DNA sequence: CTGAAAGCGCTAACAC
DNA sequence: GTGTTAGCGCTTTCAG
């Protein structure tokens, strides 16, 4: 591999001159520059990125760390972060935290291969974040509330979301409402559940233990849990699934047993993933402000990178998007007559 | 930022000893090692990744380059590449080629910030690929046929796909079949179109110019073009959309005009994106073997990285997945009686 | 305008 | 086992 040294030699100039010429410094004579460029081309010279980063001790790159690069949910988020990065003249790389402590993500953080990071990955411990972040290595954590030096957090108001979802069901006359939760250790899930409880209590409704089930935030979990619920006989009139994936699985289960959504059972989800609007019936759900949060995360990161003051935690509002998977009980009974 | 030098000094050992201790070389005494580790912890020492890469002149990382990180189509591909990378002990970063020559992607390639790359991004020119690839910087290009030193390619048999799709329609008795194409400069599109033509000619059918329209591979394009077609009056009995996105837009247009898919018009797509199975009616389409191609790309890259021989181009088969958007003309006419 | 030289932080011979 | 040292390839003073 040709180095700048080779280029300089071939062009018959000093290394520094070659460097200047290559990086377009204006003080090299046009003729010299041309010579260098020619030599570079001839040698198929490629500058070595690390050497440069090492010297500059800056990478001009930020990382977006996700649990699973292949998850389809993040598209909007990724896009907005990307836009912000681009408009700040920074590069963005995405990497996965699969593999926990050994993952690419953790390596990137620990070894400072980037100038800062946005992390949306629950399998990275708070400890790692706290240890890695510092004023010259800012991190924006999403969906968790850890803060510290150089570490700020953005969360979405899941409690409010849970409340809104449940309230929507109650407002439509539902009294028996099941909650299908995600993993027990999930902070998001807990918030959504708390919102659910608040709405239920406020309306003087009771949560039935047998209608609180866990589907682990995955489609198949929602499916299985719903099947189980149906086998037990007594059914709720509405189900609040902790996320859309589970709701999609749930709807499938419901329809397989020849019940109809929303005629027999109303369903509401959470997230508003892309699929939500395409399934049948289109899913009423709580929309996560992906675009806003990505964009906010990006901006905050750059503010920190530029040593500007930022708050250390942000909470984003959430909204209900009404589609066709919830029907009011009055309407349902009317149509039965 | 503490460097290894600081650690060594605090621990009272030489730099090399510190380095050995930190990287777990077995020849340092347990006690020394402990001292070093303790010092490192105290200083909150983080090793500098570039310095290491520079020294080692290897990064243990490969890049997956996509046009748009936020595209949802690639999930399966990303996952399979990720699996292969992980199981080879390599890290994977994904980056976007948005921004063309100035993009992160091109920078990563030119500056060799990784050991090799898989690129699925049409806005990166063949030239860049050819220039950057070399025996010690292998690149696997997907969806294009450029090859060169250290550069191999994987394509999916689009011609066959186009043929199969069209043939499926013909086998269902359709004679007037429209083709909605993607961008004119798209290689994929061309292949699919050729397959379409081959099937048409083989069946002695004629392509009508007015039924060959371009929807630019986007949903809205499919929608508009279909609307236009419908306004012109005479309708085909089936439409082959160059990709699923356009088909989804097209179906919307068709239904807005109170026609039904597949009762009035049969529709077939290409790609088998996740949505395809969820829309109404579920879309019959040609499945791209995303998982297989990702996995193949990964394996080939590692073979090249390990200086093993590989072919320089691979072509993957494609299969039809039959769902509900195509109906045979006999069935249709029967139901009209 | 050009050249010599000092490192950036780390690894890996090599010598003790 | 541990210390010394020579770079990896580049940028960037500082002299000339």
Task: Describe, in plain words, how this protein is organized in 3D.
- Chains A, B: InterPro entries: HTH_LacI, LacI/GalR-like_sensor, Lambda_DNA-bd_dom_sf, Peripla_BP_I.
- 2 copies of one chain form a homodimer.
- The first copy, chain A, has 337 residues and is α/β, with parallel strands linked by helices.
- Chain A has 3 domains: 4-54, Orthogonal Bundle (434 Repressor (Amino-terminal Domain)); 61-155 and 290-316, 3-Layer(aba) Sandwich (Rossmann fold), CATH 3.40.50.2300; 158-288, Rossmann fold (3-Layer(aba) Sandwich).
- The first copy, chain A, is 43% helix and 15% strand.
- In chain A, the strands form 3 sheets. The first copy, chain A, has a 6-stranded parallel β-sheet with strand order 2-1-3-4-5-11, sandwiched between helices. In chain A, strands 7-6-8-9 form a 4-stranded parallel β-sheet, sandwiched between helices.
- The longest helix of chain A is centred in the middle third of the chain and has 16 residues, at 187-202.
- The radius of gyration of chain A is 27 Å and the shape is elongated.
- At the A-B interface, helix 4, helix 5, strand 2 and helix 6 of A face helix 4, helix 5, strand 2 and helix 6 of B.
- Strand 2 (91-96) of chain A pairs antiparallel with strand 2 of chain B, so a sheet runs across the interface.
- The first copy, chain A, binds a DNA duplex (16 and 16 nucleotides) through helix 2 and helix 4.
Please describe the topology of this protein:
2 copies of one chain form a homodimer.
Chain A lengths: L3 H8 L3 H8 L7 H14 L5 H8 L4 E6 L8 H13 L3 E6 L7 H7 L5 E5 L5 H7 L6 E4 L8 E6 L1 H14 L5 E5 L5 H16 L9 E3 L4 H13 L6 E4 L2 H13 L9 E3 L16 E3 L2 H16 L7 E4 L2 E3 L7 H8 L1
Parallel strand pairs in A: 1-2, 1-3, 3-4, 4-5, 5-11, 6-7, 6-8, 8-9
Antiparallel strand pairs in A: 10-12
Helix pairs in contact in A: 1-2, 1-3, 2-3, 5-12, 8-9, 10-11
Chain A binds a DNA duplex (16 and 16 nucleotides) through helix 2 and helix 4.
GO molecular function, one term (chains A, B): DNA-binding transcription factor activity
Keywords (chains A, B): DNA-binding, Transcription, Transcription regulation
InterPro entries (chains A, B): HTH_LacI, LacI/GalR-like_sensor, Lambda_DNA-bd_dom_sf, Peripla_BP_I
């Amino acid at each position: 591999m040709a180095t700048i040294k080779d280029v300089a030699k071939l062009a018959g100039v000093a290394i520094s001159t070659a460097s200047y010429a290559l990086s377009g410094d204006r003080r090299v004579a046009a003729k010299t520059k041309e010579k260098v460029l020619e030599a570079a081309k001839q040698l198929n010279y490629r500058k070595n990125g690390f050497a440069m980063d090492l010297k500059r001790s800056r990478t001009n790159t930020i990382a977006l760390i996700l649990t699973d690069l292949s998850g389809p949910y993040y598209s909007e988020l990724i896009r907005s972060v990307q836009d912000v990065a681009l408009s700040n003249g920074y590069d963005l790389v995405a990497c996965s935290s699969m593999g926990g402590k050994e993952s690419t993500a953790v390596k990137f953080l620990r070894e400072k291969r980037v100038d800062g990071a946005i992390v949306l990955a629950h399998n990275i411990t708070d400890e790692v974040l706290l240890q890695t972040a510092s004023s010259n290595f800012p991190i924006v954590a999403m969906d968790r509330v850890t803060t510290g030096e150089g570490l700020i957090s953005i969360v979405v108001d899941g409690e409010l979301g849970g409340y809104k979802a449940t309230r929507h069901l109650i407002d439509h006359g539902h009294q028996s409402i099941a909650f299908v939760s995600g993993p027990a250790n999930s902070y998001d899930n807990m918030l959504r559940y708390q919102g659910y409880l608040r709405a239920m209590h406020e309306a003087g409704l009771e949560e039935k233990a047998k209608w609180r089930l866990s589907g682990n935030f995955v489609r198949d979990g929602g499916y299985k849990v719903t099947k189980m619920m149906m086998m037990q006989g007594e059914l709720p009139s509405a189900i609040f699934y902790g996320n859309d994936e589970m709701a999609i699985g749930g709807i499938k289960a419901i329809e397989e047993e020849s019940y109809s959504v929303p005629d027999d059972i109303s369903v509401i989800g959470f997230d508003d993933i892309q699929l939500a609007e395409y399934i049948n019936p289109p899913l009423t759900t709580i929309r996560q402000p992906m675009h806003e949060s990505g964009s906010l995360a990006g901006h905050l990161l750059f503010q920190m990178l530029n040593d500007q003051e930022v708050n250390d935690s942000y909470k984003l509002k959430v909204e209900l998007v009404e589609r066709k998977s919830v029907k009011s009980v009055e309407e349902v009974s009317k149509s039965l007559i």
